[in-house]
Amino acid sequence: MFSNLILRNSHRSRKENGLFFSSLVISIVAFYMILSISTQDVMLFLQKMESDAVDKLLLLIPAFYGMTLGILFFLIYFACKYQFERRRHEFGVYLMLGMRRSKLFGMLLAEDFLTSILAMLIGLPVAVVLSEIVSLVTAKLVGMGIIGHQFSLSWSAIEWTLAGFLAIKLTALLILSGRISRQEIGTLLSQPTNRPKKQMPSVIYGLAAICGSVMLAVAYYMAIQGIAWTKVSMMGLTLLLGIVGTMLLFYGMRALIALIVKKGKGNKQLHVFTFRQIQENVIHQSTSMAISSLLILAALCCFGAGVGIAGTNSLSSGHVIDYTFEDHTAEDSSQVLPNIKAALKENGLENQFSELFEMRVGRIRTTEDYDNAYSMDAVMDSLRSLPQSEDRDVLLNNLGYATYPYLICLSDYNRLLELSGKPALQLGEKEAAVYIDTEFTTVSRTAMLNQVLAGQPKVELDGSPIHLTGEVQSVNLVTDRSITLSFALILPDEAFLYYSQGMYDTYVNAVLSEQALDGNSLMTAYLDLNEKLDETGIEYESYLQNIGRQLFYTIASSYITLYLAIVFLVVANTIVGVQFLMSQQKTGRRYQTLIRLGATYETLCQSAGKQITWFMGLPVLVAAVSSLFGVRALFTGILSSRTRGTVSAMLLVSAAMILLLCVIEYIYMRVVKRSSDRYLLTLMQPQREE
């Protein structure tokens, strides 16, 4: 009989508080996902190319794990506290009927153990599936497609997930059940009530809301303009302004609620009661609402920024060539390509490549006056005539150092353009094109320089006049971005050979053949061919390094931010949902009074639904608006100059993620409303007063 009672109580608790049970399942999923990163095949692959960065990332995992344990402990503590507060009367009846306190304590432990076991049985399989999906998605984001993915199951992640989850669950339960079992029967049978809090004049609340709004505006201005990222003290000031501003804003919102109450006179049923309840909840729980809003803001920013960066990662670097070979033993630069072809043929690897072509890069060798080898006064004058802006000033500063540029051979670069599907450059005898690697410019600066180049300005190269024409070029010259030129000139072949005086570096670029890719994923083809090339002694760089770097940043931005966002979102919504349900329970006598006065169940549910919409909607609304600025501020601080040109695309992806999370918030709100409706249904039955 006692075991049946435990089973019934455990089932009823899960049914009546689905929000808390769902939070437990999501917590287990988050634990496993972060702990299993090191055993996934994508991460194992990354360790071959980015071992130092991956090792540093993995060293952070225990810190995230420990931080999450602390956060989720308070989540579980307050959620369990709500469950126990809701069952106070039930516990009092058990003790009054003769149940020993030790047996009550054991019953609570057994009920919680069953709930925990069920949560783990649901959460762990879901976590394994989700971790595999995320692993595949991160590989797909950099254009790798199916990469020979193998299923991975981390037993150590399962063990640490179970250990951490059960530890915080047991600790919270021991504290709460101990307190409940020590209380007197009369205390348990009495219904808890809200303690009245002192009201302040409306002017105080209005000033608090205004001050909070101003502080938030200043905080976001400092973050978006980059002021907060200059030093630690400024970042601390920005965070302080944001946190205090949010607290003051929610503290002052009660003035707005009071205004709505005064003007909300109409024929709507329980309108005044509803907004009196809303006003009281805001007064009593403004701090909790502010904290929940900050946590939701953190979740929205993590999701928005992380997915935005990961989703647009491939925009910053195109894949054209697969391998770049070098031969430092060649006496003449013109012999590099024949030597590489001969070495590949000797080792039976010539059929692995469909293209082999030179990329010749040199410097001006017709003069030793490096400070005056090149001048472009006309370009600088045209830039100065443009409207003043940060991009213009940065361009003027960068181009001011371009007095000794690199030179690129036109025919080689045109072959690269052809492979990338772009039109070839057409240059006259006295013409040149500008090359700037994307690492050193942005989309807006490139557009500004293209505007100047449209006029074909005249410049001087070692005293000879030439005209710059066309648009700024930026296709990667070799693989793995081992060459990044801040400024270079693309010259016709004759001019290149003349100004370089035959002293230049030759890189041999290669494209994989269909035979090399036959039946293999891109990663597998690279790994197999790398093993063969390592045996030949040929010096090479492959696109594999570039893939590794992109995939590492994708994982760092998607796994970690996804993990933190899940934790913040679960904690925030559970806190605000549990706070409302506890407050509703403490004001249960008011609903009973309305029932005696003739209020129907549907009317009470509508009133409670409006309260929930306001109570949960305000933190979400403030967080959603703030996240638009927060994500932009994160981009300002964490993006490199090379990727800042894709901010607009990232913001679109981030906005979509923020909208998606707002939908999730709506689902949370519906769950809390269902819990509220079930509680109100219990009040419709006449109850005897003890």
From TrEMBL:
A GO cellular component term found in this entry reads: plasma membrane
Query: Has keyword Cell membrane?
Result: yes
Question: Which Pfam family is one of this chain's hits?
Answer: FtsX
Keyword terms: Cell membrane, Membrane, Transmembrane, Transmembrane helix
Q: Could you tell me the superkingdom of the organism this chain comes from?
A: Bacteria
Q: Which residues cross the membrane?
A: 18-37, 57-80, 104-137, 157-176, 203-223, 235-261, 282-307, 560-582, 614-635, 647-668
Q: Where in the cell is it found?
A: Cell membrane
Report the membrane topology from the UniProt record. Multi-pass membrane protein
Domain ABC3 transporter permease C-terminal positions: 64-184
Protein name listed in UniProt: ABC transporter permease
